[in-house]
Amino acid sequence: MNHSTYYHCPFSKAITESHSLSESIWIITDFAYTLLGEGKKRKVVLTLEENNTKPKEEANMLAIFKDNLVNPPEELNSPASLNSSKRSKLPNEILQEFQSYNPSNAFSMSFGNDALLAYSPSNKPSIHNGFCVLDNIHCIFLGSLNNLSKLIKQYGLSKGTNDAMFIIEAYRTLRDRGPYPADQVLKELEGSFGFVIYDNKDGTVFTASGSNGQIELFWGVAADGSVVISENLELIKASCAKSFAPFPAGM
């Protein structure tokens, strides 16, 4: 005859009435180490705490431009920010927030008081992000172009050209061979992508995201009126209070 031993948890009612997952975890932990013994208490608590920790999502791109370079629409400045308990942050504070998402591999470049770019390579090998500088033109590119090989041939570029390098070449075509409408260049791009270009020589900013919306960009207004752009919504929320919105797809 088989005999089974059943343990009654004296805290079952407390678990049912607890108001959060963390409360329930600690109640269960207390019961667990009474069964396992004091020696295993530390190990049980450590494991549960680790499993209950949610890491920050990646933040791969940050761009901040003074309002003399980018003039945001009035709608982006929300009056609700003035009455919000959360205040918008200054550019140096926003950069620190970005670096907290990527403490090991983030880097940044500042251009006097006019612009700041920060980038962190993705930890996911399937994500083809890139940062490129060519002739004082800086590009942060997220995503991938499905028709890159075709575009390389069309523009007469070398086979080693990557997505970010191509975007710079496309921008130079707009800048140097105009008039050539920007929307025409964007129509040629197939894939899921978002990018920011800063031409430090001309003081020009060119930003766009793919029309399929799979890679979203967000923009907002910092405490000093600067425009903030990133793909990480939580970073934008923490930086711009209520003065933020999705960046228009296809632009």
UniProtKB/TrEMBL annotation:
Coiled coil: none annotated. It comes from the Eukaryota. PANTHER family: ALUMINUM INDUCED PROTEIN WITH YGL AND LRDR MOTIFS (PTHR45952), STEM-SPECIFIC PROTEIN TSJT1-LIKE (PTHR45952:SF6). InterPro entries: DUF3700, Ntn_hydrolases_N, TSJT1-like. Residues 62-250 form the DUF3700 domain. This is Stem-specific protein TSJT1 isoform C. It comes from Glycine soja (Wild soybean).
